[in-house]
Amino acid sequence: MNALVLIAVLLQAVPPPTTAPQITTASVRGDKFQILVPQGWKTLNDGGFVLLGHTSGASVLFQRASRAGSLSDFAQRQAERVMLPLGFATIGQPQSFKDIREEWIQYDIRGKRLTDDRRILYRLLRRDTNYFEFIYEASDEGFEKLLTEAQEIASSVQAIIEKPPVRRRR
After folding, report:
1. How many domains, in total, are found in the chain?
2. 128's torsion region: left (phi>0), alpha (psi -120 to 50) or beta?
3. Least enclosed by CB within 10 Å: which of 18, 83, 115, 170?
4. Do residues 44 and 37 touch, judged by C-beta distance below 8 A?
5. Residue 170 within any structural domain of the chain
6. Domain range spanning residue 155?
7. Residue 39 in domain
């Protein structure tokens, strides 16, 4: 009898198993593109470009890019432009990926904003005939925690094909 009481007490003390948290995403539109925004990210701007903020202080900027020259040259120029406001900035070696439908080049940038150590991932993405810039910035300590989510945001981009305006005959 004491064993049954002990088992009953232990079963009541153990919390019930929790279900996995539901991951929800929302779609945000930019200039002729849309991306998925995971839970925890807030849309700070949409329209010509999309700016997302996270409660941790991380941010993601996503925008269409003009096609100017080769992908690698343009990516290097833009990555250097992004790192200019940082103090003591360093830029890593470019990483690249290419398949039939998509190609991207990315740079890892480290530096300081005022006294905070910051890390930036700059990626220039070519999907079909469209070019997109993706800039993920976070504190050096928190960068890796949200990196997977940020990369999922970048890979979720879809171009929106808009119909030309209807011309009316006079």
Report:
1. 1
2. left
3. 170
4. no
5. no
6. 30-65+102-114+123-161
7. yes
Residue 15 belongs to a domain: no
Our CA angle for 49, 54, 60, nearest 5°, is 30
Buried b (16+ CB within 10 A) or exposed e, 95-107: eeeeeeeebbbbb
Beta bridge partners of 139: 118
Three-state secondary structure call for residue 92? coil
Q: How far apart are CA 26 and CA 32, in angstroms?
A: 17
Identify the bridge partners of residue 61 per DSSP, sorted by sequence position: 51, 135
Q: Torsion angle of alpha carbons 65, 158, 92, 96, nearest 10°? A: -100
**Nearest by Cα to 65 from 83, 51, 81, 78:** 78
User: Phi then psi for 7, rounded to 5 degrees?
Assistant: -65, -40
| Tens digit of each residue's pLDDT, the chain (170 residues) | 444 343 443 334 434 433 333 344 566 766 678 888 888 999 898 778 899 999 999 999 999 888 767 889 999 999 999 999 998 999 999 999 998 888 999 999 999 988 899 999 999 998 877 889 999 999 999 999 999 999 999 888 887 766 656 666 66
What is the widest separation between alpha-carbon atoms in the chain? 95
